[in-house]
Amino acid sequence: MREHISNSLLLRWGLSLAIMATLHASCAQKKTPPTNVLLITVDTLRPDHLACYGNSKVKTPNFDRLAREGVLFQDAFCQVPLTLPSHASILSGTYPMSHGFRDQGQTQSNRKMPSLAGVLRQEGYRTAAFVGSFVLDSRFGLNQGFDYYFDRFETSLSGAKEFQNVERPASDVANEAIQWIGSTPEKKFFAWIHLYDPHDPYLPPEPFKTEYQGNLYDGEIAFVDSVLGKLFALLEEKGLYDNTLIVLLSDHGEGLEEHGETYHGFFVYDSTLRIPLLVKPPRGFNSKNQIIQEQVETVDIAPTILEFLKLSPRKEIQGRSLLSTIQGKRLVSPSKLYGESYYPRQFDWSELRTLRSGKYKFIEAPKPELFDTDQDPHELRNLALEHPETVKAMLGDLRQLSERFPQESAIDQKNSYQSNAEVRRKLSSLGYMSGSRSNFGLKATEPSNLPDPKDKLDVYQRFQKALLASGKGDPNTAASELESVLRLDPQFTEARLLLGMIQRNQGQQSLAQKSFLAIVKQRPSHAAAHYNLALTCLFLGQRDEAEAHLRKVIEIDPAYSDAYADLGGIYQSKGRTDDAVLQYQTCLQINPLDYQALNNLAAIYLSRDSDREAVTLLERVVKANPSRFEAYNNLGSAYLKLKKFDQALVEFGRAQQLNPDYGPVQANIGLVYMAQGRIDEAKEQFTRSLRLDPADRAAREYLRMIESGSALRR
Asked: Rounded distance, CA 166 to CA 10, Å?
């Protein structure tokens, strides 16, 4: 245990009684500042890569400062080694079987999930969240209770630019938080800051890239530490640091090749479940600087914060407050820590669940595992066959824990996944598959007869390489890896699905069609395969076949928003606009920001002279897609139709700024000038449009009208 260093003020013996009385009076009148709360989650951070946890190779003075000024938990563990479900447990104080998040890309399935932010907002706190990755985008539901949720991840980019818009560096996230905190420092606040940088790929900026060139993962951690230093300096400058409760932890660790796992999410070993946890109490709180050895978990964070603030936790919260432990007392109830990963179920492999009690850790799997983590901290020797009674007892405890809490599992709720191409594409660029819901048929408490992930590691690692290569715009590498995966495991449907998508995007429509047909033959209820088969049929001009497959998608998965948008497109092309409108509206009920549905529905409204409704939709489009020049062009066209020429020019100007070589926007500016009688300027715009696109017949006709003088007569 480390010795507590007191910061109390020493008074000189010569201080007069009068001065002391004056000081006492002024202190009595001074109002105690409210306690602020700063929750910092650093993604993918292993504790053994911090100096305060014993790693002298990484410079982390600001992490170390929190450990020095507060308490360090030696044995803290997450519930799920995946970002979204782990943060759901942190922010709600509930286990995954209750809050319903079991994987990435899910929306909140349990609207009764406790919200730490919601409780604090009811108590008068300003609440804000600042997240560093699309994985935590507000669409997934963690924004509950926050007054302000800073995500703003661009919604419709692809390829290399896609990756730049699914995460942002810690410096950008912290700067946004600093501005928000500093805007009204006199009001008490709860801020959650999520820093994503230690997540792969490891790309630290200079000077950390050079300093840690042999271990870029550590370079990312050192960079995050430097950002924390600036954040703490701002709090001190504003006089907020001392009266702010700071809780810093990670959502999960990183495999770093332990047990053959490069990243995280696939296994539930401690390389990915063990996390750092540092708590710096506000000044004046009765605590001792110490290292706490007791085992704790992420569901304990929310009730701990609430008890710090002398607030009663909601009855739905399932974690324990650690306040008494921070004060130097022992936890009353013994620790039985739960963990899980349902990510392997994406691939038709078994989920993994774990229970930790004292020195033993049990992993429920087709091939169960038992480890003595005191003697074997790296979990290398499986004791399951040697201690069958311990295995039986811990399996019973695990089942009992699962049954004790309300089951709101997203596994049983089809509407929990975001079924649209944008979400799947963004998650794949981060190395994650997203919800093939037909893989999630079993209830959480049922034993699985699926393959053990341990037996599929080589296949999975190759698939992971392909997934990352595809997400980062390298289809050739991805296709090569996928072909090797399918040679090892011809029944691996998700690998064949990704291969078919790459083939389609590279113009190999016949090959893609064969890939998708093979999947639906093997698994007729695979919604994503039917959907991609429909897109391929559209490319091949087979509209009726495409329509049939889209209808099958909706039958399998009524929440598959893209299917409604594309079905609407087919109806619109056939002149069935009423049917198209219905499909677009259904799509937008599921995904209110769907680019295709918003644009196409707006086009129908414009054709029906419902111009104001069209403008409302197009304004939603540009708000969600500030880098799409076509979106501004479409909105400008709507304003032009309404004869709001100044507003039209503003939107056309924004489109032109984003893409100066886009011919249609030049022609549209010309139309505005014609309507305003600015004929010479209109002529210049139409001429410029034709230089960019000589095939633009409308621009050529308007130019002919100007030159013949008929434009003046109009």
From this structure: 51
